């Protein structure tokens, strides 16, 4: 069929993707322009902490503007519709058919959103993959994974890394093919000892964050430690790349924990300053370090922009670490809530 002199192959359809959250070891904090990072970042995609998104589309003759409804966990969400409208306006030059099709978007998470687990990353990655699939069905043009990663970035910066599985970088640094526009999968360079990494996410609080990551990024524009942070992140990127190649858990722990505490230090030293950590977050951090020192087991923490703690360890130490978590750390979690997660292989098509 033709609409406004454009030929479309499909009048209607339904697509769906499950896309993972990711946990950054080198933190992305601060941006310029339209989702261009101030510093490079490095993360791995999770297996069980995912967003499942389905999109039904139907040609709507006479439509000239965006037309869509967004349902989050079965309820219509005006808040998410407003965010999605911003995203659609950023990508509409790539998907001109958005002017002519009515969409129904349904999305749900397997984990609490807006609590410091990367829900925006998994959500926009899933959405970008759905749009790319619809684009293929309507136009016959298949986008590359790099193009899809770039599209996801326009929704949420860290979403570009959730388009891929396992280990990924985002942001230009001293590595060939690294880019500010899309993520780069580096799994081929990673030592087997980091290929089975486990991540137990301790839910200290399920409450929505008091200060959003968007606000946190904006505060970096005039941050007194902005230049130093950019330098630190670039140095950590190069160090962590070597660590991942040689399988050195002790050096991994040093970088991961320094990055986590640096991120929250940047929040506290912003103007105005704030903190997302809770007293129980700090109790968990102290107990992890004490357990590691006493038992000589390589286990560490990282923390995204929220109070919840990611406990990282290898599969070979799973039994001892999970016993420790059950006994000593869960009492500091809301209703003893946690998610046992691990490195995942990336998004999957669900429809």
UniProtKB/TrEMBL annotation:
Gene3D superfamilies per UniProt: 3.30.230.10, GHMP kinase, C-terminal domain
Q: Which GO terms describe its molecular function?
A: ATP binding; diphosphomevalonate decarboxylase activity
> Out of the domains of life, which is the source?
Bacteria
Q: What is this protein called?
A: diphosphomevalonate decarboxylase
Q: Where is the Diphosphomevalonate decarboxylase-like N-terminal domain?
A: 20-177
- Stored PANTHER family: DIPHOSPHOMEVALONATE DECARBOXYLASE (PTHR10977:SF3)
Q: Which GO terms describe its cellular component?
A: cytosol
Report the EC code(s) recorded for this entry: 4.1.1.33
Please report the stretch or stretches of sequence annotated as the Mvd1 C-terminal domain.
201-337
Q: Does the keyword Lipid metabolism apply?
A: yes
Q: Which UniProt keywords apply?
A: ATP-binding, Lipid biosynthesis, Lipid metabolism, Lyase, Nucleotide-binding
Q: Per its UniProt record, what Pfam families does this chain match?
A: MDD_C (PF18376), MVD-like_N (PF22700)
Concerning its family, UniProt says: Belongs to the diphosphomevalonate decarboxylase family.
**Gene Ontology biological process:** isopentenyl diphosphate biosynthetic process, mevalonate pathway
Q: What is the uppermost EC class here?
A: lyase
NCBIfam families linked to this entry:
mevDPdecarb
């Amino acid at each position: 069929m033709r609409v406004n002199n454009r030929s479309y192959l499909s009048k209607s359809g339904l697509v769906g993707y499950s896309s993972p959250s990711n946990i950054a070891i080198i933190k992305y904090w601060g941006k310029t322009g339209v989702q261009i990072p101030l510093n490079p970042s490095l993360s791995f995609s999770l297996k069980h902490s995912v967003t499942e998104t389905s999109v039904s589309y139907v040609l709507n003759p006479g439509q000239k503007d965006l037309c869509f409804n967004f349902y989050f966990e079965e309820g219509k969400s005006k808040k998410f519709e407003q965010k999605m409208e911003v995203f659609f306006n950023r990508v509409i030059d790539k998907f001109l058919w958005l002017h002519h099709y009515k969409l129904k978007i349904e999305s749900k998470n397997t984990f609490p959103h807006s609590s410091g687990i990367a829900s925006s990353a998994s959500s926009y990655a899933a959405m970008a993959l759905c749009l790319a699939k619809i684009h293929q069905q309507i136009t016959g043009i298949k986008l590359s994974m790099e193009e899809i990663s770039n599209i996801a970035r326009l929704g949420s910066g860290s979403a570009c890394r959730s388009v891929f599985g396992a280990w990924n970088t985002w942001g230009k640094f001293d590595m060939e093919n690294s880019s500010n526009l899309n993520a780069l999968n580096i799994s081929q360079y990673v030592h087997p000892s980091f290929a089975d990494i486990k991540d137990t996410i301790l839910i200290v609080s399920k409450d929505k964050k008091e200060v959003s990551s968007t606000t946190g990024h904006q505060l970096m524009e005039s941050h007194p430690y902005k230049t130093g942070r950019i330098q630190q992140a670039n140095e950590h990127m190069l160090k962590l790349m070597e660590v991942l190649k040689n399988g050195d858990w002790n050096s991994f722990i040093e970088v991961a924990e320094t990055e986590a505490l640096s991120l929250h230090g940047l929040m506290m030293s912003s103007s105005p300053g704030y903190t997302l950590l809770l007293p129980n977050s700090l109790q968990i951090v102290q107990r992890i370090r004490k357990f590691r020192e006493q038992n000589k087991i390589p286990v560490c923490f990282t923390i995204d922009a929220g109070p919840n703690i990611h406990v990282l360890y290898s599969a070979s130490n799973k039994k001892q670490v999970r016993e420790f978590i059950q006994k000593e750390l869960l009492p500091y979690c809301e209703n003893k809530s946690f998610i046992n997660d691990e490195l995942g292989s990336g998004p999957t098509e669900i429809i």
